[in-house]
Amino acid sequence: MATTGKYLATQEEMVEARLPLGSRDMCSKLLIPLNKCRQETFYLPWKCEDERHGYEKCEYDIFLQRMKKMQEMRLGQAQAIPAPQ
Question: Is the predicted pLDDT of residue 13 greater than 70, yes or no?
């Protein structure tokens, strides 16, 4: 999955690619070639489809992980609160 760190770029790579702070997440290593491809092809939507698909899949996987963790936290809180008597 995406949390293994294989999609995480180093700080130097992110600075060099001038990624915005909001985009410096677990999928940053996939965003760098996507942005480069977009600039080279003048942002034509049918170009760079493979790069875009990979990046969006990674972001979706991270989203699913966050939702799963939130659900686990909610279940843990519901079990920790004693039922009213």
Answer: yes
C-alpha–C-alpha distance, residues 76 and 56, integer Å: 30
pLDDT at residue 79, as a whole number: 78
CA distance 68 to 58: 15
Above 80 in pLDDT, residue 3? Answer: no
User: DSSP string of the chain?
Assistant: -GGGSTTPPPHHHHHHTT--GGG-STTHHHHHHHHHHHHHTTT-TTSSHHHHHHHHHHHHHHHHHHHHHHHHHHHHHHHHSPPP-
Separation between Cα atoms, residue 69 and residue 15, nearest integer Å = 30
Query: How far from 31 is each of 6, 23, 36, 42, 79, CA to CA, in Å?
Result: 13, 8, 9, 16, 40
